[in-house]
Amino acid sequence: MRTLTRKGIVALGALLALGCNSLDVTNPNAPDASRALSDPDAVEAIAGGTLISFYNTYNGLQAVGPLTTQARSHTASWNNFNMNFYSSVDGDGTRNTRSWQNDPAAAGRTSIEWYWEGYYSVAATAMDVLVAIRNNNLVIGNAARTARAEAVAELMLGAALGQIALNYDKGYFIDENADLGALSYVHRSVLRDSAVAKLQSAAAIATANTFTVPDAWHGDGGDYTNVDIARLANTVAAMTLAYWPRTEAENASVNWAQVATFAAAGLTQDFVFVGDGCASICPMMQSWTNDIFGIRVHTRVANLLDPVTQATPYPDGGNAQPNSPDRRLGDGSFGTADMEGDYGTVARTANAGTDFAWSGYEAFFASRGQYHQSNIGHIRWDASGTQDLNSIYSGYGPVPLIMSAQNDLIHAEALARANTNLTLAATLINRTRVTRGGLSAATAGEGAASLLDKIMYENEIELLSQGASVFYVRRRATNGLLVGTPREMPVPAKELGVKNEALYTWGGSGAANSSPTP
């Protein structure tokens, strides 16, 4: 079992907790903030910092851990991050005792707080940059640098508000014109549309200017320009629309034509950050999911990869070494011969998978439920290939915030759901299905329903460990979550307490799985 001792993660949690507990609390440091926001170099650094803060929030296991294990995409019975409680299953096969624990006295409240505090910290910081540039007419060196800070701040404001819309029943809309003393909640649909508008504004600013993105803003993950910022904004806009639905009815009402338009102008390369051991940039989710004994791939997903050898639910005695037609799993071999005794793995062969590995060892305590067990681990981001402590295990190495494949699959889904240009949809699917998976090519002649099945498969396999947005939100929209699993989060108890509002929650038995307000 892993323990949360890395100083970077602890420091990050403390920083976010201080960032935005309630947006209408007077800030005693306001005079210092005003001075900082008149310093061009400081404002530029703050703008760049929003990218890193968003990345760290998006990958934070405090929220992602429960969501991805609730979705039965990953599995773990550790008590870390409340995963054991929220992902466990009652004796009747439901989660009827596992509503969101939205109470200031409940340990499980932290899973609800993480996104709220993290994303509103990003949004508030981005808002400060926009106040300095737009309201106070601050110039950061020259027009290009000023436009860069403005575009990134607008992008991160829209992205953060969009994530609140994806995960909560309601929230606050803020920007440089907001009266922070008179904020009121808006419905998640209003927040979604406002976020998309901000993202399109960011894309327009980036398109109208020419600049490069400093390496320090993403840990030297690549050479990014204004074009990439515009493309990232379009991809996030497509995600915000496509991933917003909580139900099949809402999924059917998505403007899929608009999603396709955004995605067509979206990412053509991965937008990569490089983890520095969680001193500043923390690929926290990947550091746990790519640890063979940290978090494993749920048997539901392992069975998709190899239904012959990977039974679900987990059988007595476990599942045998795979022989998957998908090259991302292959025969599940991994690492070196001297790892076999410690890890239960089989030394890497010519048929080893690129993304997944098999271990004959059970990772979790049997007393917590054997249904948590799985023999398949995710090792895609372990660049060492040996679980080296100086690699992803400890938060080092390149991991995308969003992959171009995610944009492709959103684009393909939009086309398939609109039943238009299925030839392009198949081409987009095959960029990972064939190129990385080595599977038979998707074709337009299969029809939209078959293409959607292949898209869902690629979502599960290709995009695994990329935040919680892909698998949790798509499974809630297609009725894939177990009975009793909540489909969104309430406003955290801490925020409700500051405003003297009644606590509320849902999920579990006898309560709605999401807000009763449509």
TrEMBL record:
Which N-terminal stretch is annotated as signal sequence? 1-22
UniProt cross-references to PROSITE patterns, sorted A to Z: PROKAR_LIPOPROTEIN
Q: Where is this region: Disordered?
A: 308-334
Query: Which Gene3D superfamilies does the entry link to?
Result: 1.25.40.390
Superkingdom of this entry's organism?
Bacteria
For this protein, the record's SUPFAM superfamilies field holds:
TPR-like
Listed A to Z, the keywords are: Signal
The answer to whether the entry has keyword Signal is: yes
| Keyword set includes Signal | yes
Protein name as catalogued: RagB/SusD domain-containing protein
